[in-house]
Design goal:
By secondary structure, the chain is α+β, with helices and mostly antiparallel strands. The chain has five helices and five strands; from the N terminus they run ααααββββαβ. The protein has two domains: 3-89, Arc Repressor Mutant, subunit A; 95-139, 2-Layer Sandwich (Dna Ligase, domain 1), CATH 3.30.1490. It has helices at 3-17, 24-34, 42-51, 58-70, 113-126, and strands at 74-78, 84-88, 97-101, 107-110, 136-139. The longest helix has 15 residues, at 3-17.
Amino acid sequence: MNSNVNWEERTHSALRDGGYRVGAARHAVVSVLARRDCCLTVPEIVDAVRARGGGVGIASVYRVLDLLSEKQLVQKIDLGDGRARYERAELADEHHHHLVCDACGRVEPFADEDLEAALRRVERETGFAVASHDVLLRGACDDCR
């Protein structure tokens, strides 16, 4: 089964187990995040819900994202452009980082096992207990170069 669908099912279960109803707004936001491979802004989430024929207000999306963040089901991503982005909290083997185009703002996910190994090596060598990490690479995408 697709891990994104598993995330969606786990998220709905976690909310129900926590005593939260999985209402229309929560269902819509979770569904959009489950089907995306990378982070989205609140307006992008609203647009995606509406494109699928749903109706949701920006305030409702923020409330859902706050709850999902509090429950560690989504993570808030800061790419340095003043706009918060959100993506599903991933399992360790689905961890990725971000490439950001400074010209057009395009965001692309990337994963690199050699980079992950280097970061684990730094953790071992320094004795620092790393709880999480994010790598952000900025530059120009193919279209903007």
